[in-house]
Amino acid sequence: MVNKILIANRGEIALRIIRACKELGLTTVAIHSEADATTLYVKKADEACLVGPGPLAGYLNIYRIIDLAKQRGADAIHPGYGFLAENADFAKACEDAGITFIGPNSNAIMAMGDKIRARKIAKEVGVPIVPGTDSIPSVDSAAGAAKDIGYPVMLKASAGGGGRGLRICRDEKDLRRLLPIAMSEAKKAFGDDSIFLEKYIEEPHHIEFQIVADRYGNVIHLGERDCSIQRRHQKLIEIAPSLLLDEETRNRMGEAAIRISKAVNYDNVGTIEFLVDRQKNFYFIEMNTRIQVEHTITEEVTGIDIVQTMIRIAAGEPLEIRQDDVKINGYAIECRINAEDPMNSFLPVTGRVTGYYSPGGPGVRIDGNVYRGYTIPPYYDSLLAKLTVKGRTWQEAVKRMHRCLSEYVIRGVKTTIPFYKKVMEDEKFIKGEFSTSYIDERLEQLSYICERDPADLVLAISAAIAAHSRT
Ligand code: MV4
Q1: What would the CATH number be for the domain defined by 4-102?
Q2: Ligand 1 centre distance from Cα of residue 144 (Å)
Q3: Per-residue pLDDT for 455 more than 90?
Q4: Which residue from 187, 213, 289, 413 has the least number of CB within 10 angstroms?
């Protein structure tokens, strides 16, 4: 039974979970740092408790959070994304404490947290993986393997994530130089320096399938998202469905994703990531065992509430739909509205939001933690809000996103809004011609023409007039 849920996260995803709980008639407990005390998700939760000390430690303290859940009479914990999501020890500690972890079983998290093991699992069930190696024992053996595979190759950390430990090697000289760097980076970030090698796929699409699995062995997929538009391994824009896949490839990839999930007795929602090359060959690369930021676009094109589904599955309900019941309708686009300056290398900015007006109208959705008067703390990621739009056609979705970005007003801090407006006007984007190289290829042209916020101009002119009057 699940009646009361403690949310072990902050920001927009905490609010997203609260919304799902309210519709399911469940009580919510928010946890927060001092920096988050007055924030939106804390106000909207039924109960809130300060976890400290410091702005981060509270969100990461497994035993403190489980104790709090017990104290407050919560029977389940939702980890959101980041922090303790994908932490097998946390899932296990919840299981041991008799608290329902709203996510997959700890064994599945552990298996997929090891990317070398994940590759083996995929291979065993006949899903294509990128040609590559197991854990590399020495530089010389790596050089030997790379020669067989053929350059370029990519070094990856087995415990990896967020781009750390990743290196592209164009030749053996690169490999000998970059392997020690990748190892020490992985050791520092994950406490594990296991590195493996893969053939480097040039200009791939990053396409991921949303999986839903109940506790009784039923597994379906909710189609795919194209997350190719990234910068420094941070996703910026995601779309669903992919413009690249034909129906046959989509079905084959979906079936492959289901086979991998079944191989680890997966339960709850998850994502299977693939790279797709120019010839539409697909290769499994990794599985994410959590709810993802970009789940909103899948919700919009399927009409399925993924966060509610997570809670129902964790509470022991069987899936109420089959694969044939899943219909993809239209196109959805998500833009991550970040407090970053796109004219200055997307440098994160902090400060107070002095004005806020969010877009609306048909097919528009905002998942945010921002409002007029909100002060952006420096301790967390720079995501202010996710703007998701849906259209019946791709063209309609792009036009709608452009209209919404034009309508969106966030004053006081720089955001990525003007940059996204330029993307929505970019012929390549409109034609669906974008791979993971899109931002690197187009950044200069797109940023160069990013318009200045007229409010900034008003401020600059006012300051000039004031300075002039003083003299
Ligand atoms: C790759 C790849 C090309 N070839 N692996 C990076 C993070 C991880 N989630 C998937 N990643 C990639 N793995 C092979 N064998 C390309 C990416 C990749 C990427 C690489 C460089 C710059 C941007 C990228 C965006 C998405 C995926």
Answers
A1: 3.40.50.20
A2: 22
A3: no
A4: 187
Mean pLDDT, all residues of the chain:
95
- Model pLDDT, residue 450: 66
- Does the C-beta of 239 come closer than 6 Å to ligand 1? no
Residue type, 79: P
pLDDT tens track for 268-319: 999 999 999 989 999 999 999 999 999 999 999 999 999 999 999 999 999 9
Nearest CA residue ID for atom 7, ligand 1: 163
For residue 315, the CA-to-ligand 1 centroid distance in Å is 35
Q: Is 436 in the pocket of ligand 1 (CB under 6 A)?
A: yes
Nearest-5° angle of CA 342, CA 345, CA 346?
50
3-state secondary structure of 465: helix
Say whether pLDDT at 105 is over 80.
Answer: yes
Is 204 a pocket residue for ligand 1 (Cβ < 6 Å)?
A: yes
Tell me if 207 CB under 6 Å of ligand 1: no
> Which residues, at least 6 apart from 218, have a Cβ–Cβ distance to it below 8 Å?
318, 319
Give the pLDDT of residue 451: 63
| Protein residue closest via CA to atom 14 of ligand 1 | 200
CB atoms within 10 A of CB 456: 11
Alpha-carbon Rg of the chain, whole angstroms?
23
CA–CA separation, 206 and 248 (whole Å): 18
CA-nearest residue for atom 5, ligand 1, is 200
Three-state DSSP at 10 gives: coil
Ligand 1: residue whose CA is nearest its atom 25:
436
Q: What are the catalytic residues?
A: 290
Ligand 1 in contact with 275 (CB < 6 A)? yes
Distance CA 396, CA 332 (A): 10
Domain spans, the chain:
4-102, 131-199, 205-442
The closest alpha carbon to 297, from 231, 390, 230, belongs to: 390
User: Which residue matches tokens 């919840």?
Assistant: 94
Q: Which helix (H) or strand (E) holds 365?
A: strand 364-368
CATH fold for domain 131-199: Dna Ligase; domain 1 (3.30.1490)
Asked whether 281 lines ligand 1 (CB < 6 A), one says: no
Q: Which CATH superfamily is domain 205-442 in?
A: ATP-grasp fold, B domain (3.30.470.20)
How far apart are the C-alpha atoms of 5 and 27, rounded to whole Å?
A: 6
pLDDT mean over 232-239: 96
Q: What 3-state class would DSSP assign to 16?
A: helix
